[in-house]
Known about the structure:
Blueprint: H1 13-28, H2 34-41, H3 49-56, H4 64-71, H5 76-82, H6 85-89, H7 92-111, H8 118-133, H9 140-146, H10 154-179, H11 184-193, H12 201-208, H13 212-224, E1 228-229, E2 232-233, H14 235-252, H15 261-280
Antiparallel strand pairs: 1-2
Helix pairs in contact: 1-10, 1-14, 1-15, 2-7, 3-5, 3-7, 4-5, 8-10, 8-15, 9-10, 10-14, 11-13
Amino acid sequence: MTQTSERPGTGSPELARKMRRTLEPYHGIIYFTPHAAAEYAKLGIEGRDGYFASRAAPLGPVSAEVVIATFYNFHPGLVRHAIPRAWEKASPAAILEARLAAADLALREILGEALDSDEVVQAAVLAERCARAASIAGRTLFAAHAALPWPDAPHLALWHAISLLREFRGDGHIAALVAADLDPCEALITHGGANDAGIGLSVLQQSRSWPDDEWDAAKARLTARGLLDGDSLTDEGNTLRAEIESTTDRVAASVWAAITEEDAERLRALVRPWSRAVVESGVFGLR
């Protein structure tokens, strides 16, 4: 990708990290809103199966193995419960339509008339410029999402662009985990055991459905490597985890070189109150 600005901050790892923190809630609402479960249920896809079917749908009716590989840290049995059974109930296109409908309902429920403002149009234009400029090379989930049609409504175009930017970063994060020689369960444990994790290991284990025997075996492997002590990372473990996050930021930075530093800060300023409203709504269970 051609970098449009050489000024410090534009396309930098620090900017990538800041953008992720600001933009994530606007997209992440789709994984928590009750509207998503309701829309998927209309297609006969119930419970957590909807998450895997909707996020994997851009890939087409792929096997469970493809989803296990690209989603990385979920227990394979949890994925196999959803895939390929979901494709027998609804086409990927129908699932994607339901996902977009749920995003629309969720965002309108929380943000209301703010979504019809000129500011949303401005944010959508900037985010789309970055998402369209990003290279698909080595980014499987990003490439699949990038091939989808763009929504017409500006607030949904913004949501879609942020979705693409999230998957771009996520693909790079998985590459960093693989390079660090952490398998999916080990990656999850090191995430929860880091100094600044802010989330318990038991929550991560339950949310990704890792059984106790596999979880304990992964902890034993990390302990043998000198990365884990009990439920906390050692100094070496925290150093490795910091390197992973730094690599993730570095390989995610290129998308932001498509706009100037001023435009990047403008995008953050535009989206920040909407993301804050999403968080404060309690949809993430944080209120």
